[in-house]
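Risk mitigation, structural track. In case the binding assays with guanosine-5'-diphosphate fail to produce interpretable data, a predicted complex structure has been prepared as a fallback.
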Amino acid sequence: NLEVGIVGLPNVGKSTLFNAITKAGAEAANYPFCTIEPNVGVVDVPDERLQKLVDMYKSKRVIPAAVRFVDIAGLVKGAAQGEGLGNKFLAHIRQVDAIAQVVRCFADENITHVEGALDPLRDIEIINTELCLADLETVEKRMERTQKLVKSGDKKAQAELAILKRIQDALGNAEPARRVELEADEAAMIADLNLLTLKPVLFVANVSEEEVTCPEDNRYVQAVLQYAQQERAGVVAVSAKVEAEIAELPEADAKEFLAELGLNESGLDKLIRASHKLLGLMTFLTAGEQEVRAWTICRGTKAPQAGGKIHSDIERGFIRAEIVSFTDLMAAGSQAAAREKGLVRLEGKDYVMQDGDVTYFRFNV
Ligand code: GDP
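Fallback model:
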């Protein structure tokens, strides 16, 4: 499942948002094998197709895809030099797939801003600098090791050192590593460093309750949108306060509340969708009497690797996948009817999975 780290300066609304995430949280029962730490919130990926499949197959249970949000608190100016919670927390970010940075776009005199006046771009730069400094340390540590290997005549180390130098230069100028253009084989050489500034970024513009229906009118949000465009980052505008209120409500009331505000989805759902889009993820489905389940894969994933998400045996012993698109299945009315109409396809190992493929894998054990 997708894992997103939430960062941001103090007092921008991180905890408010994170509390909303944990309250709206997925049923822990669905995830019996993962221990959930206090700074982790797991939420279901909303998907209306699942209930329709449950109705069709009379399934006993449903397991939606999930996103893990990790609250990475304690990022302040100087964190990379060991101030505040220091460098320790940065280790937490290394494992996440993407970073969501909450930036304050709401004005409220009663809530002090650590850096004085409201200025989301300055806030973004502060966090960016900290992340660059942390990466710089990682890169320089690796360079020492690589240099030794170069001295001993290692050819591969020489190539690696060249890449590390390019990244070091960028980071030294407070430029994130993602701006350094790397070939696939070059990127592979440094992948194990898990550089923070290589991870995709999503800015979460936290606006006031009043602005939640038209956040584009907020000039700070405008500034963030412009900045994000040149960084190829995503942006979602939410009001953490509104999210916190929604999280307190039963589902039906929450829908009504959103409708009253003129919104068709919660900020949390927006955030989940944006994260999936940013990372080029999609969903395939499995359905049966036992359960209906959504699985997250990268665009371009082939059938055996998709099966591997379910069990490594499926990938190893892959024979074929029986696939019907969700739309075809619904139009046909049942799996049997879809089969009669020839809508259930037999796909081989080179088939590229499509979003909404309802899939049954055949494999040798
Ligand atoms: P953190 O330090 O980034 O975790 O920030 P908090 O979530 O603790 O929020 C700091 C303060 O800002 C709290 O008093 C929140 O109630 C307030 N706050 C958060 N989001 C909003 C918002 O959308 N509008 C307003 N007016 N206040 C907010």
